[in-house]
């Protein structure tokens, strides 16, 4: 968001901008990947899956 203060700059204009800025939520909740960790069921041994995936390119 861009807030523009046009000349002449007065205390009233600065106070008005401060009020607008105070009403804006600045912090967003951070993404929490730990709630998704380990949720995919691969249905097999991870090492065997890796080996099979790497063999596809040969």
Characterization of the model:
This protein is mostly helical. It is built from 2 helices and no strands. The longest helix is centred in the N-terminal third of the chain and has 12 residues, at 11-22.
- The helix content is 25-40%
Approximate shape? rod-shaped
Helix-strand sequence: HH
Tally of DSSP β-strands: 0
| Overall mean confidence score, pLDDT | 81
Instruction: Round the Cα radius of gyration to an integer and report it.
Output: 27 Å
Architecture blueprint of SSEs:
Layout: H1 11-22, H2 46-55
What labels describe this entry?
58 residues, mainly alpha, rod-shaped
Summarize the structure.
With about 60 residues, this protein is mostly helical.
């Amino acid at each position: 968001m861009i807030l523009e203060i046009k000349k002449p700059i007065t205390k009233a204009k600065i106070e008005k901008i401060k009020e607008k800025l105070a009403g804006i939520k600045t912090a967003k909740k951070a993404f929490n990947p730990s709630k998704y960790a380990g949720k995919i069921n691969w249905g097999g041994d991870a090492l065997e899956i890796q080996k099979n995936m790497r063999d596809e390119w040969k």
